[in-house]
Design a protein that fits this description.
This protein has about 500 residues and is of the alpha/beta class. It contains 18 helices and 17 strands. It has a single domain, classed as Rossmann fold. Helix 2 runs parallel beside helix 16. The termini are far apart.
Length: about 500
């Protein structure tokens, strides 16, 4: 009971509403996943936060009270491992991990993690190390380096690697200190120069408010949408400009609540097939190369009719192409932008590429796992928990910002990072659950659904969390990258 009370208290803190705890019902065991950290609690709170954001949006659009939300800890834990639990035509999805990715012992005895899952990162590591694509050869090459020097050299090349640090080392590092100065998530109003609301999208509004007239270009699918507790984001248009897990999870959550989500990528940027499928539910996918004038023009046209843009490029990367948050707010007053990064918006590592496992390694999480489990090598979390938590928390930020837009207008910017989420996880405290067995198939079964797709029949984890007891889900199966035209879906 005390652990559940702690979850409710932390949930209310995360969503910024002390009354929210009374509207959350948590079922299931306190601990599901084995770890030294409270990963199950983080999963439950993150999923609950996204559901609460959906409840806030429904209340803002309908004029009704905020509905209660519920989460089962077993379902939340399964959702945090969705890419591992995906089945394609009855078989486990192919692993996104490259054979060269992993931990290597440097010459000074410290561990360095290489992330080689994307082809250009793999090629860059092999080029620097001057070795062949073989884990044994890579291990011999890494052993010739000091760990910190190798990390710095790979980072300077734009590659992805982290030296394994203790927590105290991370918080003494300038990058760790920069993260320590940031909240879990930040939401700020963009200077759009107007009081833009969502247009005639609402079936009702917060009592006593009235939206000003909107220009014709801002009228979108919202005008014909019929939102409900299971589809509070119906009619809202989302551009998902992300890859891998955290950003795509955010887009997938928004799709599960009824949003029209268009994933925008570029043909030359690869992605792991299993991740494309797992995070592609409810979305369409198109290619645009923003360095091509006609494609950039088409994106501006899409933005002008959008409600949300989620992006996970390195900080300022889209600004240089004319698609930073302030520019987006000028193109489409009333836009909600979500920016997800690896190491936050400030500090010496703010511009670095990074992934969940690398942040775990750099910030001390992996070494804490090794110490608690008596392992002689770093031990990561039992899920890509920083990715998934950041995705769900970003979805909460977007949904809550859309609710604010309905009530008070404005364009909004939501910012999160994997490192900020990691700091939050650590702040929940340690709880050794390494003796827990892996969840069995029959325990996961109640949370599975099936759907036919171009890849074969998919067995996947259904969306976790509910609003007012309503079930939400996906309107379409995943598709291949670039399979659709760069346009919005017709009203259904």
């Amino acid at each position: 009971m005390r652990e559940t009370a702690g979850i409710l208290t932390e949930f209310a803190h995360v969503v910024g509403d002390p009354r929210a705890a009374a509207r959350l019902t948590v079922t299931g065991p306190v601990d599901v996943l084995p770890s030294i950290y409270r990963v199950t609690a983080a999963a439950t709170i993150s999923v609950a936060a996204a559901a609460h954001g959906a409840a806030e949006l429904w209340a803002a659009r309908s004029g009704e009270d905020v509905l209660p939300v519920s989460v089962d800890t077993r379902h939340a834990a399964a959702a945090f491992r969705s890419e591992r639990l995906l089945r394609i035509a009855g078989r486990p999805a192919p692993s996104p991990w490259d054979a060269l990715s992993g931990y290597y012992r440097a010459g000074d005895g410290r561990w360095v993690q290489m992330h080689c899952n994307l082809p250009h990162h793999r090629a860059g590591v092999l080029d620097l190390l001057r070795t062949r694509a073989d884990p044994v050869a890579v291990a011999r090459a890494v052993a010739r380096y000091n760990a910190a020097d190798l990390e710095a050299e790979l980072q300077s090349m734009g590659m992805c690697a982290s030296m394994a640090r203790e927590e105290r080392e991370w918080w003494a590092h300038p990058a760790g200190q920069a993260v320590a100065g940031l909240p879990l998530a930040e939401t700020s109003r963009l200077g759009d120069g107007g009081d833009a609301r969502g247009g005639p999208s609402a079936v009702g509004r917060t009592r006593g408010t009235r939206a000003p007239a909107m220009p014709a270009q801002a009228l979108s699918a919202q005008a014909q949408a019929r939102p409900s507790p299971s589809r509070p984001a119906a009619g809202l248009r989302v551009l998902d400009m992300t890859r891998v897990i955290a950003g795509p999870v955010c887009g997938r959550v928004l799709a599960s609540f009824g949003a029209d989500v268009l994933r925008v990528g570029a043909a030359h940027l690869g992605d792991a097939r299993a991740l494309v499928i797992d995070t592609g539910f409810g979305k369409r996918s198109t290619f645009l190369n923003l360095r091509v004038a006609s494609d950039a023009r088409r994106l501006r046209e899409l933005v002008a009719q959008a409600d949300v843009v989620v992006q996970a490029y390195r900080p300022k990367a889209l600004d240089r192409l004319g698609f930073g948050p302030e520019a987006l707010a000028r193109i489409r007053p009333g836009i909600v932008c979500a920016t997800i990064s690896a190491y936050g918006r400030v500090g010496p590592w703010s511009g670095l590429r990074g992934f969940d496992s690398l942040v775990q390694t750099a910030s001390g999480i992996a070494l804490a796992g090794a110490r608690a489990s008596d392992s002689d090598r770093p031990v990561p979390l039992p899920a890509q928990a920083l990715d998934h938590a950041t995705g769900y928390l970003a979805a909460h930020g977007v949904l809550a910002a859309l609710a604010r837009r309905e009530r008070e207008g404005g364009s909004w910017h939501v910012r999160l990072s994997l490192a900020q989420t990691g700091r939050w996880l650590v702040s929940l405290g340690e709880r050794d659950t390494f003796d827990l067995p892996e969840p069995k198939d029959n325990e996961i079964g109640p949370y599975r659904r099936t759907m036919r797709s171009e890849f074969g029949e998919l067995s996947y984890i259904a969306p976790a969390g509910s609003v007012g007891g309503a079930t939400h889900g996906y309107d379409r199966p995943p598709s291949s990258l670039g399979a659709h035209q760069a346009g919005w879906a017709p009203i259904r």
